[in-house]
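Summary of Year 1 activities. Much of the first year was spent building the evaluation harness for sequence design. The harness presents a backbone, in tokenized form, and records the residue chosen at every position. We chose the following record to illustrate the format because it has been used consistently in internal testing since the harness was completed.
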């Protein structure tokens, strides 16, 4: 039986999280159906709701409730998880003075507007003063939060609690040379995919129907979820019973909706698999952005770009899209796995993707540490890009201005994308060991065994384990790049004939 104090604490904690979920729903609406002129009203609604959530969190009442349950030292896993994570969130919020939070909100509003202009004009100097200001503010955040040796850790902790940047650095250092040599081998490979087939005309309506078929087939529950069109694909989990994803369509590039939808469905399967009885408390929340991304990348790449997956779905694809009728399964499978160094991260294939991330990770750490001056960022970016991908960006819009993250004051987020890829490979390798029939099941359109394995090993635990602990428990090893490299070699070797 939970104590009275614990019940009181959980009630308060749930209210804070429910207020945050109302704000998230307002943002979802803003990105999907809000009419253009609703922005001003929406800003007021959002400011009120996030304000309510913040006030309740830093309130003396909540502090007292938290301290009371901490004194009880109940070690039941659910209780311990909720108390530990509530403390973490409380401390992060309480350490930041209101003045600093408001300064950041103001600075990012201005920075984002000028970043958008700078990107259109391909003119970094317009964005530079904002980046300087935001770095100063973020260094102040790191100081207030506190860190052992690296201020970047205090920032990364917001997205990937329990993972240190030195650990990430070590794995990246091992990954980088192996990845660059694979990219070089693929560049000179004897076989090439026929990528123009991907540009054939596929009507939007048919893409929408096909994407829904795929999402449902891999386990997305439409009674507890929906798909809507939006400019940027994303997933929002309001509770395990209300999960929403968005997708986008290009009639001359059907992979955008297919793999975009599978990616977001991967995120959504995680959200739908969290324990509903613990909704709006840490025991019912996802672990970290890295683990979240591991679920989306596992379904998008390891399942969705798998030959066995298309053994099952290819007849439906060619029946649905007449212009693809004369394409062979082999050619389609090769085309959706084409590797080509390119400038834009979000369009990168799964081989070159992590090189984009490592570049950002290096530059961010140097900027936060004050070792790289903002004015030198474009040159540093281009030099690093040339070195790792063999291309020199033609302008800053296709270089250091391409991502929104810095303009909204987000530093320490990028590494979670690469962690997602590495964790996905570790988890998929473990799943393969546990489920030796996996490929045969995919050929038959059976995805429940894999989903059940993910549910049991990852989803149902909520935030009980931090990411490094979960990965070690489920795969038997700490974070490592080896399963990822092995997975790439196994797939791309035969495809490219190397
Ligand atoms: Co994602």
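For this record, the design step produced the sequence shown next.
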């Amino acid at each position: 039986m939970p104590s009275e104090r614990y019940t009181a604490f959980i009630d308060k904690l749930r209210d804070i999280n429910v207020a945050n979920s109302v704000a998230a729903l307002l943002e979802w609406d803003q990105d999907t159906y809000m009419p253009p002129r609703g922005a001003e009203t929406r800003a007021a609604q959002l400011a009120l709701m996030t304000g309510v959530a913040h006030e309740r969190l830093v309130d003396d009442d909540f502090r007292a409730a938290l301290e009371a349950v901490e004194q009880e030292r109940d070690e039941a896993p659910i209780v311990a998880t909720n108390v530990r994570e509530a403390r973490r969130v409380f401390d992060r919020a309480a350490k930041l003075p209101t003045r600093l939070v408001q300064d950041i909100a103001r600075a990012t509003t201005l920075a984002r507007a000028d970043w958008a202009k700078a990107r259109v004009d391909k003119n970094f100097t317009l964005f530079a003063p904002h980046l300087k200001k935001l770095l100063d503010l973020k260094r102040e955040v790191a100081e207030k939060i506190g860190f052992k040796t690296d201020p970047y850790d205090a920032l990364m902790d917001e997205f990937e609690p329990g993972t240190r940047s030195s650990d990430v650095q070590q794995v990246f250092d091992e990954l980088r040379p192996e990845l660059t040599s694979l990219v070089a081998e693929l560049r000179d490979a004897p076989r090439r995919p026929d990528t123009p087939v991907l540009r054939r005309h596929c009507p939007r309506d048919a893409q929408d129907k096909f994407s829904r078929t795929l999402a449902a087939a891999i386990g997305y529950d439409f009674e507890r979820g929906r798909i809507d069109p939006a400019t940027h694909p994303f997933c929002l989990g309001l509770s395990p019973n209300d999960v929403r994803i968005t997708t986008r369509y290009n009639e001359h590039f059907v992979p955008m909706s297919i793999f975009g939808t599978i990616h977001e469905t991967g995120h959504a399967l995680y959200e739908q698999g969290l324990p509903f009885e613990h909704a709006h408390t840490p025991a019912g929340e996802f672990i970290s952005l890295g683990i979240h991304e591991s679920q989306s990348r596992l379904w998008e790449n390891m399942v969705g770009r798998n030959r066995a997956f298309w053994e099952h779905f290819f007849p439906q694809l060619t029946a649905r899209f007449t212009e693809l009728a004369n394409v062979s399964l082999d050619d389609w499978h090769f085309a959706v796995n084409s590797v080509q160094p390119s400038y834009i991260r979000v369009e990168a294939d799964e081989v070159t993707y992590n090189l984009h991330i490592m570049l950002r990770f290096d530059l961010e750490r140097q900027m936060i540490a004050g070792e790289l001056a903002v004015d030198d960022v474009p040159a540093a970016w281009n030099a690093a890009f040339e070195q790792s991908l063999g291309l020199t960006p033609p302008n800053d819009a296709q270089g250091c201005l391409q991502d929104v993250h810095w303009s909204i004051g987000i530093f320490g987020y990028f590494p979670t994308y690469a962690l997602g890829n590495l964790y996905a490979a570790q988890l998929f390798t473990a799943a393969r060991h546990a489920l030796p029939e996996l490929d045969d099941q995919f050929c038959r359109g059976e995805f429940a065994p894999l989903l059940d394995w993910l549910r049991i090993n990852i989803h149902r635990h909520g935030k009980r384990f931090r990411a490094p602990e979960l990965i070690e428990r489920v795969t038997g090893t700490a974070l490592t790049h080896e399963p990822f490299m092995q997975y790439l070699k196994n797939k791309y070797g035969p495809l490219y004939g190397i």
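The mean pLDDT is 96. Quantitative recovery figures across the full test set are reported in Table 2.
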